Amino acid sequence: MGRRIACLVAVLLAAGMIFQGRxxxxxxxxxxxxxxxxxxxxxxxxxxxxQQIRDNAIHPDERIRLYMKFIGQRLEAIRQLVADxxxxxxxxxxxxxxxEFTSLCDEIQxxxxxxxxxxxDIRKSLKDLVAxxxxxxxxxxxxxxxxxxxxxxxxxxxxxxxxxxxxxxLTTEQDVYFDVHKKERxxxxxxxx
Length: 193
Description:
mainly alpha; elongated
């Protein structure tokens, strides 16, 4: 009986792999990722940025600062696009940068949640994050109105406000936690997957 079940499982697995291979071929080849373009359509990070994040997996403060840097770069790109009225596909490019900004805000919050649950001491980077993220919503609200990126702008403002609020809240929580648990100060915790 055991051999019959093992054979049946093997046949089902093989059939599943064949079906999966056909499904992948029907989608066509995956787009090649370049060093400066985002890795995948939904990934706001370039390959180089992803590698920098991976290299700092065990350094929570540096990882948070990297996300802040990448967010700042997206905001600067938006600022430049707003200033350059002759930029091709200007509104669409602003929308794309707003969507990258929103994704990066989500990523930084995921990291904050993980570091909080692991009790990693990230108070140094939180101080910087509170200062920086406090400016994000106002900048985004100040963009010129445009129906092409109106929804993306609204979503980005919400993400910015959420990241700012979470950074402030977590700063208070970390201060209280490490006041009580002095021996765990300056601990790394673990990095998000």
